[in-house]
């Protein structure tokens, strides 16, 4: 591919260096997901090789300049220290497990200073927790990993959180993490250079195609459960969308234009349980995510999961998992 034919004059969220190269910087928080970082960097490396010139650079930062241990127990080379006075033009905060545990005033002050300088500030996976704490997501569309979304929304109910693979809103780029980081970078390559280059990078990665930002983060109910009956699938969608205020069997049946008996027969035939039992399972799993990823109290989690009392929630939780909610939280923290 001829390098001179690559450049497009399209403005966007990223900010180029003085020589026209885009440098993507990553602030690594402890327990970050290495898969997100490498999924973002590798397409950049491949794009440079295919273009025959440097289109992108990348660098990593940490709060103290030391190597940061990822969630897989591994660490890359030493990172740049955020106190060295370096001001990246495009920064992604990369976090994963326990993101609130690693929020510091030093990082918050640094991000706010970069914001004042006009830097593009983004996040991979749960890195948005640090951005939210620094009040840098107010009025922006954003996304994060589906597993962390319920807890994040309970913590920051006023923010505009989507279920997209990635969101690009002015000087904010957020990504669900994992391999969605590759899809985000492929989109940026196409946006700033050419679709042909993005396709070539995709082929080098042995990917059959790129996902659009609106693709689902999770497998749909049909693939997860190997069920294809439209009434069942619609019922599951309604259940998943109404956790804090659960629908009644009558509500579900009316929404599907069937009787309650028909609804129960469908669930018994395809899921081997009643609609109420499966709905309860969805709500209990939602509560489990909140227990691991949020600082909400047990009582708050019970309410957010559609239970009228903590005692009722605790009893049901123990029936499903064989341990109490408080015991599970103590174990993982």
TrEMBL record:
Domain HTH araC/xylS-type: 233-331
Species per Swiss-Prot/TrEMBL record: Neptunomonas antarctica
Domain of life: Bacteria
Keyword Transmembrane: no
InterPro entries: Class_I_gatase-like (IPR029062), Homeodomain-like_sf (IPR009057), HTH_AraC (IPR018060), HTH_AraC-typ_CS (IPR018062), Tscrpt_reg_AraC-type_HTH (IPR020449)
The name this protein goes by in its record: Transcriptional regulator, AraC family with amidase-like domain
Molecular function GO terms recorded: DNA-binding transcription factor activity; sequence-specific DNA binding
Pfam family for this entry, one: HTH_18
CDD domains, A to Z: GATase1_AraC_ArgR_like (cd03136)
Keywords from the named record: DNA-binding, Transcription, Transcription regulation
């Amino acid at each position: 591919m001829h390098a001179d034919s690559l450049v497009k004059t399209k403005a966007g969220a990223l900010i180029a260096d003085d020589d026209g190269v885009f440098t993507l910087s990553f602030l690594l928080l402890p327990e970050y997901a290495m898969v997100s970082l490498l999924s973002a960097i590798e397409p950049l490396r491949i794009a440079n090789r295919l273009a025959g010139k440097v289109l992108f650079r990348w660098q990593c930062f940490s709060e103290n300049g030391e190597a940061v241990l990822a969630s897989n127990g591994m660490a890359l080379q030493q990172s740049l220290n955020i106190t060295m006075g370096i001001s990246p033009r495009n920064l992604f905060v990369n976090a994963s497990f326990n993101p609130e545990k690693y929020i510091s005033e030093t990082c918050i002050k640094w991000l706010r200073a970069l914001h004042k300088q006009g830097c593009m500030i983004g996040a991979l996976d749960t890195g948005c927790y640090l951005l939210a704490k620094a009040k840098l997501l107010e009025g922006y569309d954003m996304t994060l990993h589906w597993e962390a979304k319920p807890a994040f929304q309970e913590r920051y109910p006023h923010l505009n959180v989507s279920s997209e693979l990635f969101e690009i809103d002015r000087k904010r780029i957020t990504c669900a993490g994992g391999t969605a980081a590759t899809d985000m970078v492929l989109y940026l390559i196409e946006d700033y250079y050419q679709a042909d280059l993005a396709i070539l990078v995709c082929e080098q990665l042995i990917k059959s195609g790129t996902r659009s930002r609106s693709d689902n983060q999770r497998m749909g109910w049909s693939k997860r459960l190997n069920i294809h009956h439209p009434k069942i699938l619609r019922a599951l969608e309604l259940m998943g969308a109404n956790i804090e205020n659960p629908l009644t069997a009558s509500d579900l049946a009316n929404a599907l234009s069937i009787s309650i008996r028909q609804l129960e027969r469908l669930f018994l035939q395809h899921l081997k349980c009643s609609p109420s039992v499966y709905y309860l399972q969805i709500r209990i799993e939602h509560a489990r995510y909140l227990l691991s990823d949020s600082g909400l109290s047990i009582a708050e989690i019970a309410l957010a999961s559609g239970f009228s009392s903590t005692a009722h929630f605790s009893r049901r939780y123990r029936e499903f998992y064989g341990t109490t909610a408080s015991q599970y939280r103590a174990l993982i923290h």
